[in-house]
Amino acid sequence: MGKPLVGILMGSESDLRIMDKAAEVLKEMGVSYEMDIRSAHRLPEKTALYAKTARERG
Description:
By secondary structure, this protein is an alpha+beta fold. Helices cover about 45% and strands about 15% of the residues.
């Protein structure tokens, strides 16, 4: 699919069931994406780094 155009970021694994549906729609539309689970409350530095490096990833 190439570099991700959309980032699907979840706070916990319990969100994955719902966000899998979003990923499925993006895939059907041919939109590249990446999915990651990061808690902004528990890991604020890692979440901030994800956002800061988004442009580099696509």
